[in-house]
C-alpha cells in the first residue's frame, strides 16, 4: 500500500511540474474493469483540477468526475505539454472523465471505467488570437461557432496538434476520438495540406468518428482508450481493434 501511495504521489508531482511524458514503468496495476458503458474503476487516479497546460471545466469538480486510469491521465497531461511546446496558447480545458469508482455518470452513457474523457475544442477570437474556452460551444464544418452569442472560431491548428498526439500514442492506444464528421474533415484536410505523415493521417481518419447513437459532438472531443496493459480482470474492449493495436492495448509506433 505504501508503494502505491508513493507512485501516485510521484505522478501528481510531475503533472504539476509539466514533466510527465507518460506512466512510469513501476505504476501499479490499473483498476479499470468492464466496458466504458457498463464498467467500474478501482484505485482510480485523482487527476489534479489544474496542471501544466490544462485545467478542468468548472462543473467537473462539482460532479467529482476527474478520476481516470493512470494511462489516460498521462496521455492528457502529455497532450497538454505538446500543445504548450508546439503551438503555445491558453490551456486545454477538460470535461468529464469518470467518477472515483466508475459506474454511471450523470449526462453520459459511457465514462464508466476511467477510459473516457471529454475535451472542449480549442478556439480563436475573430482577430485570430488563441483564446481560452469558457464553455462548450458548437462549430460547423467551416469552423464557425453556431452557438448563440458566440464569435470564436475553431482553432484547426491547435486542435490538430491535440488529435495528433493521441493518434501517435503507443501506450495507451487510443480507440476513438468522437467528433462531428464535418469537423473531422476540416482537421484532416488541414493536416494533409501541411504535409502530415500519411500513416498519421490514415490512423486519424479511422479514430475520428461521429457517433451514431448520441449527439454529433460538434462542441467537444470525446476520447476513449483501449484497456491498458495494466488492467483489472474483466476489462472489456468493444470492437473494433485497429490493426496497429495489440491484444494487450499497445499501438505499434509510426515509422519515419
Topology:
Layout: H1 2-17, E1 32-35, E2 38-41, E3 45-46, E4 50-51, E5 54-56, H2 58-63, E6 67-68, H3 70-86, E7 92-94, E8 116-120, E9 123-124, E10 130-131, E11 153-154, H4 156-167, E12 174-178, H5 181-193, H6 198-207, E13 208-209, E14 220-225
Parallel strand pairs: 5-7, 12-13
Antiparallel strand pairs: 1-2, 3-6, 4-5, 8-14, 9-10, 9-11, 12-14
What report would you give on this structure?
- It is a single chain.
- The protein is 29% helix and 17% strand.
- With 256 residues, the protein is of the alpha+beta class.
- It has one domain: Muramoyl-pentapeptide Carboxypeptidase, domain 2 (2-Layer Sandwich).
- Strands 8-14-12-13 form a four-stranded mixed beta sheet. It has a three-stranded mixed beta sheet with strand order 4-5-7. It has a three-stranded antiparallel beta sheet with strand order 10-9-11.
- A hairpin with a 2-residue loop joins strand 4 (50-51) and strand 5 (54-56).
- Helix 5 packs antiparallel against helix 6 (198-207).
